[in-house]
Amino acid sequence: MTLTTLIAVALIAAPRPGDPAPRRELPKDLESAPWEELWVDQCKDKLTAAGQTEHYYFSQRNRLQSRKLRGHETIYCHVPQASVWTYGPTGVRYYGFSMFNCAMSLAMTRFERIAQEEAHRIFETKSETPIKAIRHLGTYNCRRLREKPDKQSQHSFGNAIDLASFYIRGVGTVDIQKHWTARYPYLEPRQEFLRSLVKRLRAEQVFTNVLDPTWDPAHTNHIHVDLAVLADGLPSPALARTLAMPIAEDDSPRDGGTTAITEPKPE
User: Fold this and answer.
1) Are β-strands 93-100 and 131-136 bridged in parallel, bridged antiparallel, or unpaired?
2) Which residue from 33, 92, 124, 167 has the least number of CB within 10 angstroms?
3) Residue 8 and residue 230: Cα distance in Å, rounded?
4) What separation in angstroms does the CA of 175 have from each of 105, 126, 167, 223?
5) pLDDT number for residue 61
6) Spatial contact of 236 and 37, defined as CB atoms under 8 Å apart
7) CA triple 19-225-80, angle to 5 deg
């Protein structure tokens, strides 16, 4: 087999993003869906504008799960416009099955760039994208909150991720459980990275909730981030910012040109 043929086979075998699955019809006993406000118009164009163009695909399973917990009403779980990631837009490899709804996918592109900037700044790396991989403890999971079973988890909508560790070139592993509080002076930069990352994610309203190991004993080994629709009972500014992210539009002339990125007009 020639080199040209091998390249052609590899290109054919490489996964393509495809298009997001259409809206899912609601069960008859549901008047509204808790995931409906997470729907993103022109999802694929927005992800393209955010730099996420490959190494992911839109799942077409469009499944709806239900789960009943004794003493509680049935919950319904669904990931609208579900996308499955292996790598992010800055080249980060995700270890663990990573499935997000479109809104959360867009927020993750912002998260990834901020994480790279903080790692580059604190560890003074030559590369501007020193984070090579991220290990997490889960994205989609149809369940209620473990500590508050009267509420449904954002994981039920592919709307959260539990970050466990980062692998950084020239540094090694930065583990939330081991390095949130540095035991030795030489580990202090790792502690600084984790805490400055959390601080920026909150300040720049990348996510609705950013729960670090100081939140409660259930978060000692990870940082939970999500894009819940409500923050303290009010509409989430983080979700609003995410839904307003720019759209990539190919309006170039036939004889060439570049792809234009336009900001949506405020409503």
Assistant:
1) parallel
2) 124
3) 47
4) 23, 22, 9, 10
5) 86
6) no
7) 25
| Position 225 in a domain | yes
Asked whether residue 90 is assigned to any structural domain, the reply reads yes
Domain region containing 138: 29-262
- Alpha helices, DSSP H, located in the chain: 3-13, 43-49, 102-123, 176-179, 188-203, 237-243
pLDDT tens sequence across 148-202: 888 999 999 999 999 999 999 999 999 999 999 999 999 999 999 999 999 999 9
Distance CA 194, CA 146 (A): 24
**Any domain includes 174:** yes
Whether residue 230 has pLDDT greater than 50: yes
Pairing of strands 223-226, 160-168: antiparallel
* CA separation for the pair 59, 256 (Å, rounded): 33
pLDDT for 10 = 40
- Tell me the backbone φ, ψ of residue 87, rounded to 5 degrees: -130, 155
Domain count, the chain: 1
Q: State the residue for tokens 């000692």.
A: 220
Q: Are 207 and 107 in contact (CB under 8 A)?
A: yes
Task: Summarize pLDDT for 14-47 with one digit per residue, the tens.
Answer: 457 999 999 988 877 777 888 999 999 999 999 9
The Cα 53–Cα 49 span in angstroms is 9
Number of helical (H) and strand (E) elements in the chain, helices listed first? 6, 14
Q: In whole angstroms, what is the distance from residue 202 CA to residue 210 CA?
A: 7
**Residue 149 contacts residue 67 (beta carbons within 8 Å):** no
- Cα maximum dimension of the chain: 65
